[in-house]
Amino acid sequence: HKLSEYCGKGNYVLIDFWASWCGPCLGEIPIMKTNYEKYHPKGFDIVSISLDADEKAWKKCIEENKMTWTNLSDLQGWKSEAVALYKVKSVPVNFLVDPQGKIIARDLRYDFLTYKLQEIFGF
User: Fold this and answer.
1) Are 120 and 12 in contact (CB under 8 A)?
2) 48: nearest Cα among 99, 39, 38, 65
3) What is the pTM assigned to this prediction?
């Protein structure tokens, strides 16, 4: 997959780099779920890119946490092409892309994602 399949198509897209073994990443999931449920109908999507190398652990985590948005992984861990392309040095890290495909924010962790989406969508 290419991120261009998801970005620049008229929606805001959060590109989220994470891993099932990352405690802080797992702590972000409830916030992302709440925002996804609230704003997805208005034009907000999430594409999670996992740095897992263990497919079973990755899929189990997605299922247990009910991550219903797009989840991708090449199962190459830190050797993933996406890691190099986006210069990912640690996880979690995310990028918010506007409807035209431009990155407009980075590292929207904790409630900063909520605040940014409230600003964008007006509620």
Assistant:
1) yes
2) 65
3) 0.94
Residue 123: closest CA among 47, 10, 42: 42
Residues forming a β-bridge with 72: 49
Torsion of the alpha carbons at 37, 121, 42 and 117, rounded to the nearest 10: -40
Q: Tokens in use for 114?
A: 């909520």
Instruction: Kindly tell me the burial class for residue 63, based on how many C-beta atoms sit within 10 Å of its own C-beta (0-12, 13-18, 19 or more).
Output: exposed
Any idea which residue has 């590109």 for tokens? Answer: 15
d(CA 57, CA 82): 20
pLDDT in tens, 40-82: 999 999 999 999 999 999 999 999 999 999 999 999 999 999 8
110-120 burial: b if 16+ Cβ within 10 Å, else e:
eeebbebbeeb
